[in-house]
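Format notes (please read before filing issues)

Several people have asked whether sequences and C-alpha cells are stored in separate files. They are not. Every record keeps both together, in the order shown below: the sequence lines, then the C-alpha cell lines. Line labels are part of the format and must not be stripped during preprocessing.
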Amino acid sequence: MRIEYLQRLKNNPKIDGMTDEGISEKEIMQLEEFFNKGNEFPQVLRELLFLSGKFCNFLDYGIYDSQMEMQIEERKELLTLRGFSISRPHYFVCLASQGLPLFLYLDEGNNPDLYQISNHLTKESHSRNLGDSLKTLINHRIEKCKSGYNPF
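Then the structure lines:
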C-alpha cells in the first residue's frame, strides 16, 4: 500500500521494544465492507490499519483482539451505556480517553478531522470536532515519544 499521510508512523514503528503491527489489505477490505458499505475508508485510515491496525504505539485499541471486535463492541457500549448511536459512517481510532473515544467520519475525505464522543450526549451534540486530523495526532504523539514523554 502506498503511504501518503502516515509516513512518520511508517518510519517510527518501534518504541521501547514494542513494534507496531498492521493488518492485511484483505482484512481492511472486510472492515470496509462491514462498516462502510464496501466503500473505501479514507486513505489515512487505510494506512493506519495497514501499518498498525493490530497494535499501535501511539493509539489505544483497548482490550480488544481485533479491529472488528473493537468497532462492534464500542458501538454496543455507546448504545447500551449512553443510549446513543452515531448515524453517519464512522470508525473508532483511539480509546485512551476513558469512555470518550476518538473517531472519524468515513465520509469527510482522505484525511478527515478527528472527533471525540461528548461527555454530555444529546441528539444535537454527541461529539466535538477536535480540529485536528489523525495524521496530526499521530505525528504529535511521535514527537512526544521522541522527546522522552508518554505519547498519551
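For reference, the curators noted about this record: Residues 18 and 105 are 29 Å apart (CA to CA). The chain has five helices and six strands.
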